[in-house]
Amino acid sequence: MNYSIFKGKIKNVLPDLSHSSNTVGMHNDSDDYNKIAKMAVCINNKIRDYFGNRVDDFGVEEISEDLNNITFTISFRAYESYSIFLLNNLGNYSCYFMIGGVKFNFKSAHKYLESGDYETLFSEIKHELELRLPDKFLEARGWL
Questions:
Q1: Under a CB-based contact definition with an 8 Å cutoff, are residues 44 and 60 in contact?
Q2: Which of 19, 51, 140, 141 could be a cystine partner for 55, CB 3.0 to 4.6 Å?
Q3: pTM for this entry
């Protein structure tokens, strides 16, 4: 069974779980569910740490209850413009962003996320998104 547990400003909903023994347990007291939710929030925190004020409007959805069938989706907005989705579906990771209803995949997301190389994936995401934004916009926000 999957749950769509929260949408919006995660930091206002959940404690930072990346360095604690706290559990989420918002819909279920299952240990597996809590471990999977904690994993998703840990990745969420890594995104926040890397991108800083370039990202907001986080959501974590579709968290499974079974460690043998791990699924979750992290969504966030980057550069006030792009909706980014990072999915783990049974260990098959994918990441994409949307522009005007068109989906753009980060083809290397699976290899980076599977190996835990978040920094390289985030760097690729940052590069691809900043290519699509005017320098004046990035400068005005202090991102260039």
A1: yes
A2: 51
A3: 0.74
Q: From CA 54, how far away is CA 96, in angstroms rounded?
A: 17
Identify each DSSP E strand in the chain by its residue range: 2-3, 6-7, 55-61, 63-64, 71-78, 82-89, 92-99, 102-105
* Tens-digit pLDDT profile for residues 82-110: 999 999 888 888 999 988 888 999 888 88
Question: What SS3 string covers 100-124?
Answer: CCEEEECCCHHHHHHHCCHHHHHHH
Rounded CA-CA distance 7/21 in Å is 23
| Mean confidence (pLDDT) of the chain | 79
Q: Alpha-carbon dihedral of residues 93, 99, 104, 110, nearest 10 degrees?
A: -20
- Average of pLDDT values for 39-61? 92
**Residues 113, 93: contact at Cβ < 8 Å?**
yes
Give helix then strand counts, H and E, for the chain: 5, 8
